[in-house]
Structure formats: C-alpha cells, structure tokens
Amino acid sequence: MLAGKSVLARAMTSSRSISHVTVIGGGLMGSGITQVAAQTGHHVTLVDLDEGVLAASTTRISSSLSRVARKRYHDDKEAANRFIETTMSAISTTTSAGEAVKNTDLVIELIVENMAVKTQAV
To answer: Which of 53, 44, 33, 49 is nearest to 96 (CA)?
Structure first.
C-alpha cells in the first residue's frame, strides 16, 4: 500500500497538471472522490462493472451537489444550478476500465478488497 501512496504523492506534486481523473469503483468513496474531483475542475470518468451502481452513484453525487449548492449560493438559484450543471457535465460513467484509462492523467482504484472482483474490473 505504501507504494500506491508514493505514486499518488508524486502525481499530485508533479509539474504536469492533472486534467482527467478516472475513479474505479462506484461505491460511497468512489462517488465522493468523483464529486470532489469534478468540483475542482477535473474531468472525471467513474468506472464500475454494474450500471446500477453507476446510476446510484450519479444520483448520490447530484443530491450531494444540490446540498452544497444550497449552502454555497443561498438565494442565488441561477448560480446554484450553474454549479450543479457544470460539475455534473464534468462526470462521465462507464463499465469499461480499459477504455477509461487510455487518456487519463490519474487513476484512483477503490474496488472492494476482493481479488476476484479486482481482476474482473481491471
């Protein structure tokens, strides 16, 4: 696990900018990381083997963004809607990890600790 942390640390401190992030695993952590990466201006591809998980993740992210927008923009509904739309438009989903990682700058893997599932996913 330490090797993974050092790779992430190098990627985050590299002079090369990160514009596209691929998150593999659409559970709670995956959707949360996807949301934060999209909110901070990154294009994000969320990957999971199950379309239902991807749909639930997208719904979870949209609900969370609505709460953030209400707090951040209070009475400015137009700005709140723009924030939600801009963030959601930066997120795409797929069931194909191989395709998703072809043109990405950073991959974050959050698959359940089950080698059979990890092997199938990537």
So the answer is: 49
- Going by pLDDT thresholds of 50, 70 and 90, the confidence category of residue 106 is very high
- Which residue type, as a one-letter code, is found at position 121? A
* Residue 47 phi, psi (nearest 5): -115, 135
The pTM assigned to this predicted structure is: 0.80
Among candidates 120, 121, 113, 102, which has minimal Cα distance to 1? Answer: 113
pLDDT in tens, 21-50: 999 999 999 999 999 999 999 999 999 999
3-state secondary structure the chain: CHHHHHHHHHHHHCCCCCCEEEEECCCHHHHHHHHHHHHCCCEEEEECCCHHHHHHHHHHHHHHHHHHHHHHHCCCHHHHHHHHHHHHHCEEEECCHHHHCCCCCEEEECCCCCHHHHHHHC
